[in-house]
């Protein structure tokens, strides 16, 4: 298969390269740790503890989506939408983001694609709402960018600053480009994080022995620095991978061919064709995962010493291809 098949656009590739570079810095990693720790200790745990004490039923996916949204907004551009508060408020930014995401994704599900194009042309219905939501989000982002540029001249250090400030201080002055990066970052991380965590906690509730093993590992590693603590939690890592094998946060994904090509099995792909792949189905194939594919087994992702992976008798994480 040629290297050009289904390649992301140059703009998308550039965004990913910029984001990857920024996330490799130790100071940003520390900043992320601080943001997430504060959100967990100051907001998530108090809400869950109160609900448990009062025997209150919560919509866990909604709570985790709020949790992810707050975290990503703080990390991406230093803005706290305060979406995960005890009264579970509706915020203008979150509402517009939700509307834009739902309407955009709805375009792909419609049986009559020309309808949304007509509505867009006439600026009516859902397309009018999409235009309003996108305008609000971009204006909101531009105002934050202006504020960040102003702040940069007074910042002596970048030890605990958000991703947007890092982009701007690195010379990325194109406001549209930076705005696209920030919005794409939020879009990619918010729903996927909450969906993955919701299924994960549901699976743990159905598998108490696995839950006990995870709790044991957390207690054993709790004295380590945060990054080292998480890095060494191989069983917890394996259980997350196993959860996402069964319930991937993006169950179907697709790409568009940049030019004509041929798949390894001989399938001819023409320029502009959309090609979909199905992680949900791939994670449930018996030929890949064995006859026990439907079982939640973190051990699939682990090996002990003597298996050619480590020499200390401990579990080691081993990645698996689908």
Automatic annotation (TrEMBL):
Cytoplasm in keyword set: no
Keywords, ordered alphabetically: Heme, Iron, Metal-binding, Monooxygenase, Oxidoreductase
Family, similarity comment: Belongs to the cytochrome P450 family.
Pfam families found in the cross-reference section: p450
Gene Ontology terms for molecular function: heme binding; iron ion binding; monooxygenase activity; oxidoreductase activity, acting on paired donors, with incorporation or reduction of molecular oxygen
Lineage summary: Eukaryota, Viridiplantae, Streptophyta, Embryophyta, Tracheophyta
Coiled coil: none
The protein's name: CYTOCHROME P450
Cofactor needs: heme
Gene3D superfamilies given in the database record: Cytochrome P450
